[in-house]
Structures are given as structure tokens and as C-alpha cells.
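fwd from M.: "can u put these together and see what the complex looks like"

so here's what she sent:
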Amino acid sequence: MKNESSRERLAKRAALELQDGYYVNLGIGIPTLVANYVPEGMTVVLHSENGLLGIGPFPEDGEVDADLINAGKQTVTALPGASYFDSASSFGMIRGGHINLAILGALEVSQAGDIANWMVPGKMVKGMGGAMDLVAGAQRVVVVMTHNDKSGASKLLPECTLPLTGKRCIDLIITEKAVFEVDKQAQELVLIEKDPELSLEAIQACTAAKYRVALREPVSA
Amino acid sequence: MKNESSRERLAKRAALELQDGYYVNLGIGIPTLVANYVPEGMTVVLHSENGLLGIGPFPEDGEVDADLINAGKQTVTALPGASYFDSASSFGMIRGGHINLAILGALEVSQAGDIANWMVPGKMVKGMGGAMDLVAGAQRVVVVMTHNDKSGASKLLPECTLPLTGKRCIDLIITEKAVFEVDKQAQELVLIEKDPELSLEAIQACTAAKYRVALREPVSA
Amino acid sequence: MKKVVQSAAEALAKVGLNDGATVLVGGFGLCGIPENLILALRELGVKNLTVVSNNAGIDDFGLGLLLQTRQIRKMVSSYVGENKLFERQYLDGELEVEFVPQGTLAERIRAGGAGIGGFYTPTGYGTPVAEGKETREIDGKMYVLEKPITGELALVKAHIGDTHGNLLYRKTARNFNQPIATAGKITIAEVEQLVPVGDLDPDQIHTPSIFVNYLLKGAHYEKRIEQRTTR
Amino acid sequence: MKKVVQSAAEALAKVGLNDGATVLVGGFGLCGIPENLILALRELGVKNLTVVSNNAGIDDFGLGLLLQTRQIRKMVSSYVGENKLFERQYLDGELEVEFVPQGTLAERIRAGGAGIGGFYTPTGYGTPVAEGKETREIDGKMYVLEKPITGELALVKAHIGDTHGNLLYRKTARNFNQPIATAGKITIAEVEQLVPVGDLDPDQIHTPSIFVNYLLKGAHYEKRIEQRTTR
């Protein structure tokens, strides 16, 4: 276990949020890796917002099809039971609350459940793509991100400082150090799991958002 | 010609409003008969708001299919080039202005182009069906109706007295006595054709709406 | 992921529908109606339903069967056609009716399924339909604000379904079934043919499986014709 | 009814597009873009275009080709990706950009094609996207009012078309093409295969012919892949 990369551990932990029969949208980056950890015997249907339900593995070399890509524009395959549809229908699924779970990355998350992940300070804005629709529409939104930015600053904040992607929409935050639920009523986070090698004080020292502690048995990831 | 029924003459006159390549919605009753008078060599695609483009003739006895009906719930057939779609898409076509021409009946039409055709006085209301969408959405709306009601009263009025189906939406009115264009700016009708056997005075006597006379060569119907 | 059930009754039992619920029912006239699910709803006996459906069936078939048993308190429809039972209950004040223009009805249901909070349509402006509703001018044209429709339960009928819940409709039996399948908190589909997952072409699916919670092969299809018309 | 033309250039010549026009272009990244029509637009040389398209192509393919020739004044997109030319023109102030959330973009285009005057979406509430727009609470949830998008011209790419203009898309190349086909004052479709009317199953048509004014078989398809990824 200790040899696993941090990315893989995060993906494994996020995969524990999956349930049989779920329709799930996975963002670019670590969230994409979650697909590798769907438990045996569980059926999870992956949604790609460019118009596909039932994403399969990447194609073999000879299988590559320019007409079959995911939302990250990578060539993919489709599983039995898949369907293709247009972009308006695809986002109808998202906005209409039909996607059970969306897992995506973030630059900042606030203790009220706000998220910022589309405008990187000092960089040219590329656009929000489908992120704003996903955070506003999915039944449950899980953020997977590093706990701190490159300078060591907390990405869990009392208020986001970057322009928002969505307001009061995040349900769970998974970092390499801890897992927090968002208590939207109280507008605070709830620390429910932590890396056993880190003390509560160590978590506190690197977390700017307000949170209460209600540790559960750490879910094995 | 003189042996034709009034219904047939009305349908023939309405058919002169068709153009090659038109997508057309025909209402129940006389408007349905217009389909019989599409000129040779002209392609007109008939739209049925329950989800069909390309209505064909009524089926032969052995061809009847419960899954293939028109908006009047009659069994029909579909022509080569037809397509089926759902009700939301069907009314997207209508409301989005993609139907070139709608031909329908009316109880009353006002000189400003208002139409009333869904609530019959003294009768149980059955509902408006798709009529309100058609008059609001089609590029051009043509009314085909008798000039007067059973009591002899004019159905062309300064203002409709019945609850409206649509406001300022009618472009042309065809009756057995005359044809009127609607000048929506001036909010008056323009008499452009009349039954050659009727004098202008006779038309005036049975027409309550305000109109000016600008007779064109009567289009042969 | 087990969506396939053995009967319409089993599907309804899983839902646990309460009296007073709003149920969306697909079909246009008698074309494409979920015959078996309507019968099961009758068997179940739930009362005071609000039923959203373009039409109300006929006296002895389709939704007319639920009028017979007085299970419907309110209909939301565009046209109720020739249904004597309907007329009597309506005139007696037993049955409430909300008439919605057909395109507005379809769009409200689509909006409900697609998470749209409301939309502006030109349909019905200046008519009784717009009374009490917000109207506004947009780019020189008048519009009426209409709200989305959703329901505790959506019942649809498709021609073919696969075991994941992907649906294909046939000809004009598609009609309201496709938008209604998206607008139920729970959606049950009945099909004439049930095929294994993977049998359907992914390019040709009308209702993706995400919208379908339960599906069943209908025990029997009468597919009655309202206006048999021949050449 | 003659919709079939021999080339993309002939189709554009029939439209008579002016400088400053708004053009809607289908595709997602390089997937399903109307390659031949984009090339013909470049040949035509019209300037100051507003282009509505989810993405902006890459430096040397897709809409990037129209950036090279500085024919685009404004892009309406959800994500512009890695396009250096785009970045330079944007930073130089030559190119205006309106970022629209992908789902809102798709819905605005659909609304444009379906005659909806505006709609309330939860997407973007409380974010920069909602700035200057009407917001309102509907049933306890906050929404933003968004307006429809239409254009003088819509350019789409389908897999198969029949001579009446019915279209079938293939796999994820459908994407924005389907809504965009409905939202042009004039819509031109290019297809990989052109078949006689009657060859397509009416149950399986993605874009009914009513939306298509002209169509052509594309002279050549490169179908470039942006992120070739294999197992």
C-alpha cells in the first residue's frame, strides 16, 4: 500500500463513494483514475458530458476512433449498454439531477461548499467547460484534490478567493491528508477521516477552513 | 367546378398557399383536405404534431398500425424521407418557426389577426391541443373557415368575443365567400379575392370586421 | 444494477406510491400508452392522483380506467377528447382539469427532466392560458413564463428495452413518452420486447438507461386504435 | 425541394453570408466538426464573424484555421483549450471571448432553435457567469436567466444524410451538431455518406430534414484526433 502514489490512493478512496447502479461523471485528472477502482461485481455507468453513457477503457491501438472521445478529448471505447446523445440532452441529464455522483478536482473549496476550479490566477482563462453544470446539477459532488497548493497554503478555506465555479454545491472533499463532509446548514466542514500517520494538530495546521471533528473508522483505501 | 363541395373549394384555394419544399401543418377538418391538392411535382412535407414529418395517405386495410397515427388520432402512413420524434422536439419545430405554413380552422378571427378556436360557447371545453403553439409559432398561419356561423353572424370581427387561441398571429383568412389578408400594422383586413358571383356589397353585408378592398385577380381554385 | 422486474404490479410495489401523488403518463390518445402499468395502477387502488398526460384515454381504455375507479383527482392535459366519464366527473366537480397547450406541456415536462427552473414561451400569450402568469417582452416579442413539471412517478411505454433500461420507441408511439421518461423521480418503463444489454445500437437509443429505474415486459398489449381510418 | 449541393463552397454561395454575421459551428474539440464547411468559410473570406462553438479548434485545424486568417472577431465557447493563436489574439484584444458553461451553451442553442425566449438554469449562480443577469429563487433554489442563441448560419457535420436533409450522427461526433442544426436561420450540413431519400429508418433519424436547408457530401475528411489515447 505504501508504494502507491498519492494519486492512486486518492482515486481509491474516491471509489468508495460509488454504489451499484450509479451513473457517475468523472472529471479530468485524478477523478478519471477512479474508474480503475470500481469494485468487482458492481455496475457503475460512466457519463461523458460530450454525449456518452457507458465509457469503456481506452482503445487498443487498432480500435482508435476519431468519432469516439471523452470530455477530455481522449479516444475511448464504449461498453455494452452504452448510448450516445447530443450535448443539450447530456446536460439535461446533469442539470436534471440524474447523475448520481460527480467527482472532480478543485483549486479551492470553502467551508460552505463553494468551489473554485476554472480560473487559475495568472494564467489565461481557458473556460469552465462543463464544470459549472456538473457542480450545480449532480446529486452528489465529491472533490478530490491536494490538501495544500504548491506554496503550502490550504485549499480548504473559510471563503474561496478565486472566482467561483459553484456555490454551496460540494458534498465531500477528499485530500491526501483527510476527508471532510460539508455541513451546508452549519456552513462548516466535518473531518470524518484522516491519514493515520497525521495528528489532529497536523491536520489543523494545514487547514484554513473551519471544521469540526467527527472521525469515523478510516475507510480502507 | 360548380359541383364541388364548398369544403373542397376551400381546400383547393388553401392549397395555393403551398410552395415547393414547404413543411406544413394541417389542422383537423377542411385543412386536412388540403393534402389532396398539392400540385404535381411539388414536394410538401406534412407535419403531425404528435411526432411525424412526412405524413402519407391513409393506410390500406391491411396496413393499419396502432403505432402510427396523426394528431387527429387517425391511422396514417409515412412517406419516404419521413422521421419520427418526441412531442417536445415536435413543438420545438413549431415554436422555433421551422414550420413554413399552418392551416387551421377557426370560430372567430379579428381584424387584428387574433384567433379563437378552442372554446365553443355552451359546450364542454375539450382543450386547446396544439393549436396555441401552432398559431404562435408557424411562419405563416392561414385560417380556413365558413364566413358566417350557423345563425348567419360574421366570424370576421372587430374583436373576438370568444377566449383567444392566439393574438395577432393570423396572416390570411380563406372563406367560401372571400379571401382576406391581415394587415397587422393597420389592424385591419384586406379583401384580396371574392366569389365572383358576390358583389362587394354582399361581402360587406356579411362581414363585421373592418377591411379595405384591394382585389387581385381571383386565384383560380 | 437490477432494473428488470417481472410485472407492472411488482414495479409499482417497489415504488411505494402514496395517495395524492403526481404521476406522469406517456402516450398520445391511446397511442403508446403504458397499458399494463395503467392496469396495475388501477389494481393498486391509490387515490387522489394528479395525472399529467396529454389526453385522458377513452371511457373504457387507457386513463379512462382510472377515471372509472375515481382514482384521479386532477388531470393536466392539452386535450381530453371524447370521454363521457371525464365530462361527467368534471361537471360534477369531482375532477379538476388544468389545460396546458400541447407544446407547453411537452416543454414543461422536458424542463422538469432537464433541471430548468422555468422558461418563456410565446404560446398562449394574450389567451386565458397566460392569466396569472408573468409575461415579458424579449427582443420585441411577448412571452409567458411557464414552470417545469415533475412527478413522483413517470410511466412510459417503449417498443424495445434492454436490461440496463435503454429504450427504443416505435413510430408515433414515441410522443410524450420520451420527455416523460426524464421527469419522474422514479420512472418505470414497460416494453413489448426486452433484450439483453448490448443488443441495441448505442447511436439509436431514444431514452438512455439513466432515466429508467425499473422496466418490465408488458404481459399483454391490446394497442387499441381510436380512429381507424383507411384509404 | 433541392437541398443537395455539390460542394461546401456552393452551399455558402447560396447563403450569401455577410461580414459580421453570427455562425454556429458544431463539434466538440475536433470531433464532429464540419471540416469542409470551415475550409470553405476560410476561402470565402468573410470577416468579423461571431462564432458560437463549444471549442475553438487547434492552431492548424478546425476553427483555428479561421483564427489564422483573422476572420473571427468574437468566440462564444465553453472551453478554448490549448490554442496559442487564440491566446495571442485574445491577449492582444483582437479577439473577444464570451465563456458560457457547456450545458448553458447547449441549452441556449436548443432554446434558440425551439423558440424559447429565455430559461432559468441553476448553472453559474453565484459565479462570474451570473454577473449582470437576472437571478431568481424558484421553489427554494436559485436560478440565472439565460437567453437563446441563434445565428444567420449553422454549420454541422453528420455521418449520413439523405437527399431530403435527414441526418444521422455517429458516436460522440453528435455532440453540439444536433442542437446547432436547429438554431441557424440557414443550416448547412456536410455528411460523410449521402443516401437517397427513403434509405433511412424514420425511427432513427437524429436531425429531421426540416432543419436542414442545404447539404453536401464532404470532399475529404481528415478527422484529426486531439488526444490519441490507447490502453
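replying to her w this: Chain B touches chain C through 54 residues (CB under 8 Å).
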